[in-house]
Amino acid sequence: MAVTAHETEQKEQTCAPAACETCSSSSCSATDQQQGETQQQFEERRLLTSRLCRIKHKIVVLSGKGGVGKSTVAVNLAMALHLAGKKVGLLDVDIHGPSIPTMLGLEGRQVMEGDGELQPVDLDGMKVISLGFFLKDQDEAVIWRGPMKTGVITQFIRDVAWGDLDYLIVDSPPGTGDEPLSVCQTLEGADGAVIVTTPQKIAAVDVRKSISFCRQMNLPVLGVIENMNGFVCPKCGELTSVFQSGGGRLMADDMGVPFLGSVPIDPQIAEAGDSGVAFLQRYADSQTAAIIQGLIKPLLML
Ligand code: ADP
Fold it and tell me: Is 276 in the pocket of ligand 1 (CB under 6 A)?
């Protein structure tokens, strides 16, 4: 099923009301209609709140710019949590580069709709939603105005039957503009953000912006991951420094946020991503897989 921008707008207007059955808390902000709120706005807010209420931990993966491996990290964090036995959802709202269907071999999979809900694509028990599932062809450029983009982000959280999850990992659009802003606003009460960067000094500027963005949004920074730090030789496994290293750790220390770790450039990561098999499944016994498994330790303690 392909949802056009027009349909997305229409759906915004016709979203079916649903009772909040998640809990009986009388202090929940979704219990009462707010002043100035229409009945439809109230029902949509209540539906969003009841969806979010059933997700224990919501983690946004951010980066200052594209191409640093944000989606790769998001996929692998989600997969690592899934392999650790957690109930995981993975939401790809990187509107201009929805690469997660390709990375997980889910291209062409259909998102079913019923009872006003979108059913996420199931990958061995992990629930996945990506704008990529709704594009007619992979090369289609998404040229939407701001309200359409924010509409689709809200829809993917509010109108998807996520059910009960331990973790929802959200692959946000890069930068600090309207789109990541909308992700963070919609995911009210999220545990925090994981910020992905590369080791060059110049990348630190973007990360500082991402950290300051999180602070303005009152979104805790769970930590910084430095991706592509050194190159793992496919023949001997030796790690060679490529860029000036250590920038991510220094910057994290300087900004007073946790440093979660470094992931090397590993040709097997790129190969797994291109061939549509999760790296952690295909190369489960590799050194890089062990590094990625280590990155989720602080997330398991949330
Ligand atoms: P972003 O989401 O930041 O735009 P992607 O996750 O799509 O970046 O990664 C861009 C490309 O880099 C992809 O082809 C991916 O496979 C590759 N890549 C990302 N991280 C690594 C890594 N650590 N080692 C090798 N290739 C990587």
Answer: no
